[in-house]
Amino acid sequence: MNILVVGAGALGVYFGGRMLEAGQNVSFFVREKRAAQLTKEGLKINSPEGTFEGRDITIFTSPEEVRNIDLVILAVKGYHLDEVIPQVQTIVQQTGTSFVLPLLNGIEHIDKLQQAIGKEKVLGGFASIIATLNELGHVEHTSGSSTFKFGILHEQQTEISVQLEVLLSQVKTKLVREENILKSMWKKYIFITAFSGITSAMQLPSGFIVSSDATFATAKRVILEMTMLAEQEGIILTDQEIESVGKTLISFKKEATSSMHQDLRKGLPIEVEHLHGGALRLAAKHQVEVPVIETLYGILKPYENGRPTMS
């Protein structure tokens, strides 16, 4: 299977690199600046799951260059989605790509991709990892493990889902083929909206979530608001599943933090519109109130495009 990873941030390089390490035929579609960095510095992963370095990497910077792709793995930030969709459309049309597997957080991107390339082509999926890029563009994986989950959103995807599970079985990550991937995506969305929102608003790592009863109560309130939105969308979580999301929130090492908080500290754009803004659009759609999420959104919105400056 010929796999194209669109995006070479920490997420794309980590999982694309792990697939290369396992002997899979993987190429990358990136911007020219990132392509130059990868060409000069190579692809390198520093991780508790094992270090990997690759130099002979196939890189594309224009959709017209791409040929003979069976699966596109979309590993971009939410704020790049609208820019990338036309490029993915071109790649799918000219290569005959059968499926696209997005690893974005949130939910809104599924509908956008389905409208652009067809419902039958868009698989469900997401990744769980705490990682960032260092000054050389190499991955620094700081959590103890990583997880890659995927599953079908359309009846025509059963065969490729099984094939992908077998194909990627040797990859150094926890690979899970989910029967109800949409519910799993929602559970991740609930968690990441709380975790990224609270750590970024505090501008402190995860250990401070439980250091104050008021802060932990705020985080739990986000989980409840997001759970309500899931129910409005037909996704029902059990009490145990809701409790599990809360436990995950406080399971990290005290110094660990969210990717959004890491980006905010670096002065980079953050996914507040894709995550918290998406939740607000769902709340408006169903005419319900989510006051804590709305507050976090208001606090973080000035950082959406990087470190704010007075103009």
Please summarize what this structure is.
With 311 residues, the protein is of the alpha/beta class.
Gross morphology is: globular
Intertermini distance: 50 Å
CATH superfamily of the largest domain: NAD(P)-binding Rossmann-like Domain
Question: Can you tell me the CATH class of the largest domain?
Answer: Alpha Beta
Q: Helices and strands, in N-to-C order?
A: EHEHEEEEHEHEEEEHEHHHHHH
Please report the total strand number as a whole number.
12
Structurally, the number of domains stands at: 2
In helices, the fraction of residues equals 40-55%
Can you characterise this structure?
This protein has 311 residues and is α/β, with parallel strands linked by helices. The chain has two domains: 2-179, NAD(P)-binding Rossmann-like Domain (Rossmann fold, 3-Layer(aba) Sandwich), CATH 3.40.50; 183-303, N-(1-d-carboxylethyl)-l-norvaline Dehydrogenase, domain 2, CATH 1.10.1040.10. Helices cover 46% and strands 15% of the residues. The chain has helices at residues 10-21, 32-41, 81-95, 108-117, 158-167, 181-202, 213-232, 239-249, 259-266, 272-286, 291-300; strands at residues 2-6, 25-29, 43-46, 52-54, 58-60, 71-74, 99-102, 124-128, 131-133, 139-141, 147-151, 174-177. The protein has a five-stranded parallel sheet, with helices on one face. A four-stranded mixed sheet has the order 4-3-10-9. Strands 8-11-12 form a three-stranded mixed sheet, with helices on both faces. A hairpin with a 5-residue loop joins strand 3 (43-46) and strand 4. Helix 6 (181-202) runs antiparallel to helix 7 (213-232) and helix 6 runs parallel beside helix 8. The protein is globular and about 50 Å long. The termini are far apart.
